[in-house]
């Protein structure tokens, strides 16, 4: 009988992902939905693995002219505008912005035309 080779990479990535979401105070149901969507897009999964390992974006994936870094900056700008706090205060949970950037990338991949317009015109991606 041959030995069984077990690759626990996805389990480790999943655990790290949920730890980030927990730290970011994102609901489990929100995290579950994002995790399911990340697994649907291998290029987004690759970006997540890179983020977990390096705590920065790979930025290999682009939809139109938007990368994860662009979406992160967009999330930060929205946060600063909504909270009216100026530039990136300590109270801003940057991990939450990162996870929201991943969610925005999924939305861009799902319907690029619709979400690129929202980014260009400043309408929030959570507004429908």
Detail the poorly predicted runs: 124-128
The average pLDDT value, as a whole number, equals: 85
What's the alpha carbon Rg, rounded to whole Å?
A: 16 Å
Oligomerization status of the protein chains: single chain
Helices and strands, in order, run as: HHHHHH
Q: Identify the overall geometry.
A: globular
Number of helices: 6
**Helical residues, percent:** 55-70%
- How much strand content do the residues show? under 5%
Strand segment count: 0
Distance between the termini: 56 Å
Which structural class best describes the helix and strand composition?
mainly alpha
> What composes the largest sheet?
none
Short description:
This protein is mostly helical. The chain has six helices and no strands.
Features:
mainly alpha, 6 helices, 128 residues, disordered C terminus, single chain
What does this structure look like?
This protein is mainly α. It is 66% helix and 0% strand. The protein has helices at residues 9-23, 28-40, 42-54, 68-83, 94-110, 112-121.
Spell out the blueprint of helices and strands.
Blueprint: H1 9-23, H2 28-40, H3 42-54, H4 68-83, H5 94-110, H6 112-121
Helix pairs in contact: 4-5, 5-6
